[in-house]
């Protein structure tokens, strides 16, 4: 049975690869990533929330019809009149519970992706703790890692560059300055930049503050 990214990190840093995120693992992250305690707590707090404690590796696109209309209503509104016709809703019914087709439809012609037939939506679907998504972002990440193999084998974001993809996200979006403190204002600002809103804010606050406690006690 292959190890998950968190277990690989633990093994690489001489920890028990039990896949449980705890004080020893987060302190190893602080040292490995050369971050302050506050930056580490913020980084881990946001990533742990987004990835279910680093267990989620790929974007889950196995959506029901109802969920598709909730999340991607704009994509199904092809005539952009803000009202979904029966024909537009029918597309969602056809795509229901078909992850690859969903990805190719909703991510077509955006973020550097080609059209629906190109398959870019599925090929460059979300991976990593903060869900690296879209051909353009994968190319920028491949350039940053100096590894163009990522473009023909995007699963490397999971198998080789899981945490690096999240670190790159913080770098590329200039988030480290917002992570210098762990007060509520800083956590809210980071959440807004990462999530686009404040979904799961209380959980992000709880995780960040818990992780800071672990780091201070190390």
UniProtKB/TrEMBL annotation:
Domain (Glycoside hydrolase family 19 catalytic): residue spans on this chain: 110-170
Q: Which GO terms describe its molecular function?
A: chitinase activity
Q: Which Pfam families match?
A: Glyco_hydro_19
User: What SUPFAM superfamilies does the record point to?
Assistant: Lysozyme-like
Question: Which BP terms in the Gene Ontology apply to this protein?
Answer: cell wall macromolecule catabolic process; chitin catabolic process
Protein's recorded name: Lytic enzyme
């Amino acid at each position: 049975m292959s190890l998950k990214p968190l277990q690989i990190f633990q093994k690489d840093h001489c920890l028990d690869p039990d896949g449980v995120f705890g004080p020893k693992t987060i302190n190893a992250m602080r040292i490995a990533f050369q971050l302050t305690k506050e930056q580490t707590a913020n980084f881990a707090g946001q990533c742990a929330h987004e990835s279910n404690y680093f267990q989620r590796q790929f974007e889950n696109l196995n959506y029901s019809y109802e969920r598709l209309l909730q999340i991607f209503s704009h994509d199904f509104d092809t005539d952009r009149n803000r009202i979904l016709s029966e024909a537009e809703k029918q597309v969602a019914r056809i795509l229901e519970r078909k992850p690859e087709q969903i990805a190719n439809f909703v991510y077509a012609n955006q973020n550097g992706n080609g059209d629906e037939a190109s398959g870019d939506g599925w090929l460059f679907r979300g991976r990593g703790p903060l869900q690296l998504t879209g051909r353009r972002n994968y190319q920028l990440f491949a350039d940053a890692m100096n590894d163009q193999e990522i473009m023909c084998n995007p699963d490397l974001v999971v198998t080789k560059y899981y945490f690096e993809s999240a670190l790159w996200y913080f770098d590329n979006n200039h988030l480290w300055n917002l992570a210098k403190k762990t007060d509520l204002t800083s956590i809210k600002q980071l959440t807004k930049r990462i999530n686009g809103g404040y979904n799961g804010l209380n959980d992000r606050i709880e995780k960040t503050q818990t992780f800071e406690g672990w780091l201070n006690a190390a």
